[in-house]
């Protein structure tokens, strides 16, 4: 049974600007495991990756109904599986969590679906 759906659109340039303005922005948004991947990417891919994870975590907060604030960016981790599909590997929801991330050169769009486990 679907518990919640969250959608977010983020401007990649806004995330680049936030990173330039705040040196701790990457550490605030990305978990340690996500940062390992981030540090291996080209500058362009870093911006897309950071914006994608930021947006997906915002979508997660919306699907949960609490938004980011009660749930921290650090409470949610999104890693790619063996074939490159992003998966929510850490989160505070007691159920299944699904994520989709897509981007153009300027925007990233994400969706998260939270599903209660059937008992």
TrEMBL record:
One Gene Ontology CC term in the entry: cytoplasm
Compartmental location: Cytoplasm
Keyword Lipid metabolism recorded: yes
EC number: 2.7.8.7
Signal peptide (UniProt feature, chain positions): none
Native species: Loigolactobacillus backii
GO molecular function: holo-[acyl-carrier-protein] synthase activity; magnesium ion binding
Source lineage: Bacteria, Bacillati, Bacillota, Bacilli, Lactobacillales
GO biological process: fatty acid biosynthetic process
This protein's record includes keyword Cell inner membrane: no
Reactions mediated catalytically: apo-[ACP] + CoA = holo-[ACP] + adenosine 3',5'-bisphosphate + H(+)
Highest taxon of the lineage: Bacteria
Family stated for the protein in its record: Belongs to the P-Pant transferase superfamily. AcpS family.
Binding residues annotated for Mg(2+), in chain numbering: 8, 58
General function of this protein: Transfers the 4'-phosphopantetheine moiety from coenzyme A to a Ser of acyl-carrier-protein.
The protein's required cofactors: Mg(2+)
InterPro entries (alphabetical): 4-PPantetheinyl_Trfase_dom (IPR008278), 4-PPantetheinyl_Trfase_dom_sf (IPR037143), ACPS (IPR002582), Ppantetheine-prot_Trfase_dom (IPR004568)
Keyword line: Cytoplasm, Fatty acid biosynthesis, Fatty acid metabolism, Lipid biosynthesis, Lipid metabolism, Magnesium, Metal-binding, Transferase
Name of this protein: Holo-[acyl-carrier-protein] synthase
């Amino acid at each position: 049974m679907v518990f919640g759906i969250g959608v977010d659109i983020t401007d990649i340039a806004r995330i680049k600007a936030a990173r330039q303005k705040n040196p701790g922005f990457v550490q605030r948004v990305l978990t340690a495991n996500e940062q390992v991947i981030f540090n291996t990417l080209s500058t362009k891919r870093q911006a897309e990756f950071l914006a994608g994870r930021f947006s997906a975590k915002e979508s997660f907060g919306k699907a949960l109904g609490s938004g980011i604030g009660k749930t921290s960016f650090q409470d949610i981790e999104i890693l790619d599986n063996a074939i490159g599909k992003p998966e929510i590997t850490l989160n505070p929801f007691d159920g299944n969590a699904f994520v989709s991330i897509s981007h153009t050169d300027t925007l990233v769009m994400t969706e998260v679906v939270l599903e209660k486990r059937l008992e």
